[in-house]
Design brief:
Its cofactor is Zn(2+). Its EC number is 6.1.1.-. L-glutamate binds at residues 6-10, 42, 196, 214. It is an enzyme of class 6 (ligase). The protein is built from nine helices and ten strands. The chain has helices at 17-32, 53-63, 79-91, 102-111, 178-181, 196-206, 219-232, 267-277, 290-307; strands at 4-7, 36-41, 73-74, 95-98, 136-139, 163-168, 172-177, 185-188, 211-215, 238-242. It has a five-stranded parallel beta sheet with strand order 3-2-1-9-10. It has a three-stranded antiparallel beta sheet with strand order 4-5-8. Glutamic acid binds at residues 8-10, 42, 200, 214, 218.
Length: 311
């Protein structure tokens, strides 16, 4: 197998320390495997996309020494592929139109199970729209009552267990019950925007991604992506989720929580700090050129992976 990895930033603002950690981890893992490393701009969430942030991120990546092995791709130029995938899922009966509003779903939670902020769709439109206009398209997840719900479902063909299990290379064994923890999820939103879950699965498959390396905030999306890969009949990559960077209040670092843009004039300091966040033991004294940093960090990444409980 030839390794293909990617960094997939959403252009909602300039690259910050949190996204640098994900970029570095995905780049190091690709280089440590002698693999190919790609950059994909995830700009399909129209309302969140900031004009110019894509080019700014790409320029910063170059300044930090991350050179992609193929030209970057933009999700906004690929939407006909998401339409084709949705059409295939409609033809196979995996998806259905949903007419529920957010409020209706929120109200239904009082009757079923309440769960922090995540709304679990109760399946109201599974058997028809009940006279309501279609708003979104949802993917069916398996019923929790299926007899083989405890089965290990690593098979590539759609298995019918609601419990999805996978081994994360950093976090160890994971499992999520799609029926009780997620519910049927949206692929095409009521506002006409393609959902992240569909776009990421279609693109990872089409770009031949074999290894996904990203922040642990996306660990919770992985079971959904595995289920979608099974429904589309595409391979499931290997997963590795690195610890997220948080601010002083314990919130994930992002534009919304006040992350500062990286200083493109001083890549080395930020790269060394990002390596520390990943627990990489760099040589002493610290490297003083980007090239020396890269060679040292690739070795340190290999040693770090060997120490993980999941190794
Ligand atoms: N675009 C997503 C983000 O910036 C990352 C998607 C992924 O790596 O799967 O959070």
């Amino acid at each position: 197998m030839s390794y293909r990895g990617r960094f997939a930033p959403s252009p909602t603002g300039p690259l910050h320390f949190g996204s640098l950690v994900s970029a570095l981890a995905s780049w190091l893992d690709a280089r440590a495997h002698g693999g190919t490393w790609l950059v994909r701009v995830e700009d399909i969430d129209g309302p969140r996309t900031v004009p110019g942030a894509d080019l700014d991120i790409l320029a910063t990546l170059e300044r930090f020494g991350f050179h992609a092995d193929e030209p970057p791709v933009w999700q906004s130029a690929r939407i006909e592929r998401y339409r084709t995938a949705l059409d295939a899922l409609i033809a196979a009966g995996h998806v259905y139109p949903c007419g529920c509003t957010r409020k209706e779903i929120a109200d239904s939670q009082l009757l079923t199970h309440q769960r922090n902020t995540t709304l679990i769709y109760p399946g109201t439109c599974r058997d028809g729209l009940h006279g309501k206009p279609a708003r979104a398209w949802r993917l069916r997840v398996p019923d929790d009552t299926h007899p083989d719900k405890h089965a290990d479902t690593h098979a590539s063909a759609p298995a019918h267990s609601a419990v999805i299990r996978f081994d994360d290379r950093w976090q160890g064994p994971q499992s999520q019950n799609l029926a009780t923890e997620v519910g049927d999820f949206v692929l095409l939103r009521a506002d006409g925007q393609w959902a992240y879950q569909l776009a990421v699965v279609v693109d990872d498959a089409e770009q031949g991604i074999t290894h996904v390396v990203r922040g642990a905030d996306l660990l919770d999306s992985t079971a959904r992506q595995i289920w979608l890969q099974r429904c589309l009949g595409v391979p499931t990559p290997a997963w590795l989720h690195v610890p997220v960077v948080t601010n002083a209040d314990g919130e994930k670092l992002s534009k919304q929580t006040g992350a500062q843009a990286l200083d493109p004039e001083h890549p080395l300091d930020a790269l060394i700090a990002a390596s520390r966040h990943l627990g990489l033991a760099l040589r002493d004294p610290a490297p003083v050129t980007l090239e020396a940093f890269q060679a040292d960090a690739i070795d340190a990444w290999q040693r770090r992976l060997a120490q993980l409980p999941a190794a």
